[in-house]
Amino acid sequence: MTGKNKSLCVVAGASGGHLIPALVVARNWKKANPSGIVILWTSAKELDRRVVHDYPFVDKIIALGVKPFSLRPDKLISCVFGLATSFFKAKFTFSKYRPEKLVSTGGILALPVAYAAYWSNVPVVLYELNAIPGKATKALAGLAKEINIVFKSASAYFKKLDPAFGEKCKLVNYPLKFEGENVDFPKSRALGLMNDKIEKNYKLEGKPLHFQLARKTIFVFGGSQGSESFNEFMRKLLKIRENKAEKIQVIHQIGSESEKRWQRQYQKESIPALVFSYTSNIEECYKVADLVFTRAGAGSLFEIAEFKKKALVVPLESVNGVPIADSHQLFNACEMEKAHPELFTVFNQEAIEGNIRKIVSKMFELMKTDEKPKPVAMKPARRATKASATKPAKKNTSAKAMVKAKKVSTTRSKGA
């Protein structure tokens, strides 16, 4: 530490799922140490800059140029160079500030900084925020003084790696960004805030359609960076007459797509809508929502549970058509559905692409009732039986069945 001031180092970035909870941990530390110094290592992405802007207590921000790992020679050299330069930057910072600990929520950015902390005798505290540990967290588990987990099931994965890693695990609450006053306010106030934003962000001629208390609100949330497949689903929904346009209004996080184009599409269908690429006041969206249509990032799922909202969850299982070997979102979704069956209904990507009318029907069924309805023909998130698992002719698209299939596949590959 410099002088008499305590300091805390945090490394997180490249996605809101890593960065926001890390900043929440730092915020809580800052409240207990008002004169303390918070140092953040993050990426140079625009998303990270936007997120950090909402946390002004951060005293020093260091952008790291770590590139994703690749076996292509040019990209591999760039990745190794970024890791090496980041390591020495972090080593210098640790020698200058002598922080009381380094907090990491995973990701490739954490690797050089955590190793620099370890070699500088700075305690490393990991937060694993998913039901199954990520690659970076597993790689750093041996260096860590403490591993904080938010899903109890994560402990078993660490124990399989090394029994000593399991002993480091501590079950904690997910570090949500919301505080008491952010959650406890009336829906009517949130509707007013939505309408203010609609007016401010409207880019078309004429007057926008405003949100009404009598309409059902669908919150389409593809995560901090949006979801192209969710956007495609909403395009299809707007084309079918069964969308019951007169009964719904939409909050839609569109990612990098054009706000003006989406405003025009909703206006054409006479559906009040708030569209945005990023918002720092997502609690207002949850407050208004009757149903959340979401990916299965841990942060989103715990936020939904905090607000006690019903959710139709579609885990991310592939990137650019390439399947993810261990989809942490799939495991997150099934764990949360098991813990909160009254809130969460899980479908896989294939299901929402193939039966849009049934999905729309399920959406309205979920918004209409106080109790979670029994599964319909889509059979969302049904447990796979031994019989169903051995019949290739009838493919089970439920999320839980896919989790079981992944576990079987992993076991076979290890024994081969």
Shape: globular
Helix content percent band: 40-55%
**What is the end-to-end distance?**
51 Å
Write down how many β-strands occur, each being a DSSP E stretch of 2 or more residues.
15
The radius of gyration computed from the alpha-carbon positions, rounded to a whole number of angstroms, is 22 Å
- Average pLDDT number: 82
Report the portion of residues in β strands: 15-25%
Total number of helical segments?
18
The chain-level structural class is alpha/beta
Q: Which sheet architecture does the biggest sheet show?
A: 7 strands, parallel
Uncertain runs are 371-395, 405-416
Biggest sheet strand line-up: 3-2-1-4-5-6-7
SSE order and pairing:
Elements: E1 7-11, H1 16-32, E2 37-43, H2 46-53, E3 60-64, H3 73-97, E4 102-104, H4 110-119, E5 124-128, H5 135-140, E6 146-149, H6 154-161, H7 163-168, E7 169-171, H8 180-183, H9 187-201, E8 216-221, H10 228-239, E9 248-253, H11 259-268, E10 273-276, H12 282-288, E11 291-294, H13 298-307, E12 310-313, E13 318-319, E14 322-323, H14 328-339, E15 344-346, H15 349-354, H16 356-368, H17 386-389, H18 399-415
Parallel strand pairs: 1-2, 1-4, 2-3, 4-5, 5-6, 6-7, 8-9, 8-11, 9-10, 11-12, 12-15
Antiparallel strand pairs: 13-14
Defining key terms:
alpha/beta, six-stranded parallel sheet, disordered C terminus
Polypeptide structure, described:
By secondary structure, the chain is an alpha/beta fold. Helix content is 46%, strand content 15%. It contains 18 helices and 15 strands. A seven-stranded parallel β-sheet has the order 3-2-1-4-5-6-7, sandwiched between helices. Helix 3 crosses helix 4 and helix 9 crosses helix 12 (282-288). It is globular and about 60 Å long. Mean pLDDT is 82; it is low at 371-395 and 405-416.
